[in-house]
Amino acid sequence: MQVYKFGGASIANPVQMQQLLPIIQSVKTPLVIVLSAYGKTTNALEAIALTCKAKQIEEAKKLAKQLEQAHLDYAQKILSPDNFNVVFPHLNALFTELEWSIDDFNLLDFDYSYDQIVCIGELLSSRIFAAYLNQMQLATTWIDARDLIRTDTTYRDAKVDWEQTEKQVVAQCLPALQQAIVLTQGFIGATSDNASVTLGREGSDYTAALLAAMLNAESVSIWKDVEGLLNADPKQFKATKKIDLISYSEVIEMAFYGAQVIHPKTIKPLQNKNIPLHVKCFLNPDLKGTTIQNELAHIQYPPIIVLKKQQVLFQITTRDFSFITEDNLSKLYHVFHQLRIKINLIQNAAISFIACIDHEEDQIEALCNALQEEYKITRNENAHLLTIRHYDEVIIDELTKDTVCLLQQKTRSTIQLVLKD
Ligand code: ASP
Ligand code: MG
Question: Ligand 2: distance of its center to the CA of 197 in Å?
Fold first, then answer.
């Protein structure tokens, strides 16, 4: 059994979706497909949630209508009139679900309301894709991932209840796989009260890994628009190198430092069961791609570069001159954790705590409000955080020229620098 995950770019439009057909036709084993919302649908749904938050409900409904129409147009282009008529009631039911979620929008529980709105994207795209595969004589069973993935109520970043999920996955997918391809949604799940949840942005990879582990798949393939994992983001750096083979732990490191390659939660379930993960290019399926697997005897990696822009470096200093030790540290971490602010780099001095975080104005304001009574806060904006794994002096010089270094941390394998142009 194999698991294929197709991301938003691979189904960005009906032509693109059609081009996935030969990839799926060539699979000789039972297949589970995990699908994302198409194109930038999740961003559009997020915009609807934010429009509700700004109390512009009528505007939100208008945006929802546009999104609904775009999905109908998409379905109409790829399906015969008969098949369109079959799928139409399913799409319509989802449109109703979206409109109700807008009506029920609750400002006091934004994360909950967000998830009820944002989950619709993958449900819509997967309904269309399932209808298309059936139309092309590939028998496909559509399963609602909310009947598979059981989670807690941490909306927007839900934690999976492994035992319950495994029961549901085995009970529903195994029998269905005997007759057909199983097609479900990435990124979404449900609580024990049947509320929709999401697993965190870009969470579809994680869903694919969960299903693969629970169904003991031979492998997972994530189909992307790049030839495989690269040692740096090609949008930021010119001379990138493709990595053929990489260990699970190296990928975890890359993700931790902010490389947007694969959702970081994806790796653990695969590593537990030793299931290889292939990153393949849907534009050219014959390319070898990248394989992520267990640590091998010795893999020689090129320097792996991760650049995070729009960073703010905070210096948080105690007003009472108390040292930054256990007491202050636990207080500070607690505030960051409560506000869900991820710290990208930390350094301590005697009475100050230095943290590099993404520049999100709302979060920064909340952070300053929470801390200003006990701490003096100064900030340095417009910085970027450069991380290089497997570095050498040549690459450091090359990547830091014409910059000012505000902070540097170095281990034998990794260097991190907070820089300003
Ligand atoms: N559609 C979701 C997102 O864009 C999940 C995913 O694509 O993995 O975040
Ligand atoms: Mg997506």
Answer: 15
Render the burial of 120-147: b for 16+ CB within 10 Å, e for the rest.
Answer: bbbbbbbbbbbbbbbbeebebbbbbbbe
At the top level of CATH, which class does the domain 304-420 belong to? alpha beta
Q: Whose CA is nearest to atom 6 of ligand 1?
A: 202
Q: Are 281 and 290 in contact (CB under 8 A)?
A: no
Ligand 2 centroid – CA 335 distance (Å): 30
Tens digit of pLDDT per residue, the chain (421 long)? 999 999 999 999 999 999 999 999 999 999 999 999 999 999 999 999 999 999 999 999 999 999 999 999 999 999 999 999 999 999 999 999 999 999 999 888 999 999 999 999 999 999 999 999 999 999 999 999 999 999 999 999 999 999 999 999 999 999 999 999 999 999 999 999 999 999 999 999 999 999 999 999 999 999 999 899 999 998 899 889 999 999 999 999 898 898 888 888 999 999 999 999 999 999 999 999 999 999 876 788 999 999 999 999 999 999 999 999 999 999 999 999 999 899 999 999 999 999 999 999 999 999 999 999 999 999 999 999 999 999 999 999 999 999 999 999 999 999 999 999 9
Q: Report how far residue 336's alpha carbon sits from residue 357's, in angstroms, rounded to the nearest whole number.
A: 10
Ligand nearest to the CA of 198: 1
In the structure, ligand 2 is a single-atom ion and the residues with CB under 5 Å from it are 8, 36
CA 198 to ligand 1 centroid distance, Å: 9
Residues near ligand 1 with C-beta < 6 Å?
Answer: 7-8, 36-37, 42, 121, 186-187, 201-204
| Residues 400 and 386 sit within 8 Å (Cβ to Cβ) | yes
Q: Write down the domain spans for the chain.
A: 2-224, 304-420
CB 2 within 8 A of CB 33: no
Ligand 1, atom 2, lies closest to the CA of 202
Identify the CATH homologous superfamily for domain 2-224.
Acetylglutamate kinase-like (3.40.1160.10)
